[in-house]
Specification:
With about 120 residues, the protein is mainly beta. Helix content is about 5%, strand content about 50%.
């Protein structure tokens, strides 16, 4: 059973915007930490943005801070990632994640992964 489903990826020119969505089951959405990771070909999966479900505190990777915004719609069990001022180096497969581990940008807290959505930014 798929419990996290991402959408919203696509191809965009540098400077453009995309909004990723992640629909979760209620059980998964209620995990303590929700977040977005990305993985480019040949590179390790890296944390992009995470949010604490209890207090809404968000943390961003240095590379996206000021350009990306993570948010939640608690009524619909949807996690969002608004991506503005996109750069070619943002090109990657983006994954939604949920878990109850220690809040951080590492992968160690993740218990559940989505299947990923591709984002391609051209120069």
């Amino acid at each position: 059973q798929v419990q996290l489903v991402e959408s919203g990826g696509g191809s965009v020119q540098a400077g453009g915007s995309l909004r990723l969505s992640c629909v979760a089951t209620r059980y998964i959405y209620s995990r303590r930490v929700l977040g977005w990771f990305r993985q480019a070909p040949g590179l390790e999966r890296e944390g992009v943005a995470i949010i604490d479900s209890d207090d809404g505190h968000a943390t961003y990777a240095n590379s996206v801070r000021g350009r990306f915004t993570i948010s939640k719609d608690n009524a619909k069990n949807i996690l969002y990632l608004q991506m503005n001022s996109l750069k070619p180096e943002d090109t990657a497969t983006y994954y939604c994640a949920a878990g109850d581990g220690t809040y951080s940008l590492s992968r160690r807290w993740v218990d559940y992964w989505g299947q990923g959505t591709q984002v391609t930014v051209s120069s």
